[in-house]
Amino acid sequence: MTDSQETLLQKIQEQGDLVRKLKAAKESSEKVKTVQSFYGNLEEINKHLSQFSYLSGHMPSKVDIETHNKLDCNVHFQNYPHLKRWWYHMRSFSDSERSLFPESYHLNCMVKNYNANNKSVDQQIKEEVSKLLALKAQLGSEDAAPQKFVLKTAKGTRDYNPQQMTIRNNVLQKIITVFKRHGAECIDTPVFELKEVLTGKYGEDSKLIYDLKDQGGEILSLRYDLTVPLARYLAMNKINTLKRYHIAKVYRRDNPAMTRGRYREFYQCDFDIAGQYDLMVPDAECLKVVTEILDALDIGKYVLKVNHRRLLDGMFEACGVSADMFRSTCSTIDKLDKSTWDEVRTEMINEKGVTPDAADRIGEYVRLNGSIELADKLLQDEKLSKSKGAVEGLEGIKLLLNYCELLGIKDKILFDLSLARGLDYYTGVIYEAVLTQPIKIGNEDQTIGSIAGGGRYDNLVGMFDSKNKQVPCVGVSIGVERVFSVLEAKLAAGDISVRTSDVDVYVASAQKNFLDERMKICAELWNAGIKTEQSYKKNPKMLNQLQHCEENGIPLAVILGESELKRGLVKIRNISTRQEEEVPRENLVQELKSKIELLDIKEMNGPLAK
Fold first, then answer.
1. Which long-range contacts (CB under 8 A, 24 or more apart) does 314-317 make?
2. Does residue 285 sit in the same domain as residue 312?
3. How confident is the model at residue 204 (pLDDT cuts 50, 70, 90)?
């Protein structure tokens, strides 16, 4: 692709965004009169906004921007749940996105000139669509010329060969086994969602959402994770209780680090429990699920860090951070696993507006970690004990640690005040599994870090319900891409081997003109449920057939010969030991089944091969 083409595609994308925003603003302009009638009354605003679930094409307009700018951010949103949803929805749009809307007039002028403005917007849309069509026509003429094409996968994505897919399937099967052991059911959701479903749910990470090109219909984005689609699924289908697992690809416009399992397209494996249950009972089971999975995968020693969002908020409050800065401060604290305290402190002060004194007080707390004794100690802390949220969080942590002891995983849990997890939707306990030692791969040690994470999110489902009906949820996501990266690196270093095929028997012939007999035996073995294959050549060489068995880990071969068949016999050859045994032709199926059961086949489609 030439530079001129890339520039032209960029112009088409920008022009398409402008047309989309103009159309969306026009569709939502009917709200103008309604907004003017209730503008000064928060109760009426809240009531009006209850009509919108953000699942049916609701798009902000110049009226929303005007209203948002005039509302005070210190409004007590707990009294106005629908207003709160709308407020965070509006905050999710960047200045550059807002700038694509038509010029905003004062509210009274907008109503007064409603018809005139509508006509003006129609004309503007027509003009911008014409410009867009002209750009596309120009691209079509350039495409007619011959082009040099570089064949590659898109940035942050990759292909997977049979060995890599064998590793993946084995890992996923072990994870699914644990999920099913705990009674989880499987669901699936679309790979893309309405953009409004995703915006305003991920805090600073919202900028990583992939927006799809406008096709003249709904405004869509690729899913960022599997949690928000689950919340949408629960709200849309009026489901109050569900224990589900979901394994699927998600997409993030991040800077990829391929060698460390960080991609733009990657798998997530989620386990979630939705419903109103007693405190910390489902939360503790989620931690148990993580330990069972990491024990089954056996890729290294780990620790499960736990903390509580209410405790973090109480800690910020006790340290002098204003309530409107809690989430942004939390996002900065979340970087402590990758950055030093000095770097995090500098960001809190220079970028997030936290005072140096407050940052230093926060630093005293986030360096603490321990077990239930630490929770008891913090409950006696002069500052934290005065915060209702901090006390509630500490009591919750104590209860969780008690349950973990009952489940036999206490020695794998660490109460760590530096754990923050940056996603905005968490409301209670949060946790993260971290490998504690570098992984030995060949002659090198590799540091992996976080390998699973999750927490409680009690308010997310209500954001999609017009009546703000809440369905409490807690869940965990396994970082399988990092697991895959470790095992693939071990494979490349020769530390493990894989068997990519499940075939148990290869039907071979020692002489020519045995294709018909080979096909008859293959059909007989397939019908008996035995995994079988043969050469697709009419007269294959015997050496090539046996070499194929060795290269692909096929343990047994049925060898046909003219003299044996005349006597009603066939040979069964053990590929690894090279021992051969003649058996009656009519007993072949039973003899093979007996030998397969006795074989100790090390394969990646069962346990990991060492």
1. 314/384, 314/387, 314/388, 314/389, 314/390, 314/391, 314/392, 314/393, 315/362, 315/365, 315/384, 315/387, 315/390, 315/417, 316/362, 317/387, 317/389, 317/390
2. no
3. low
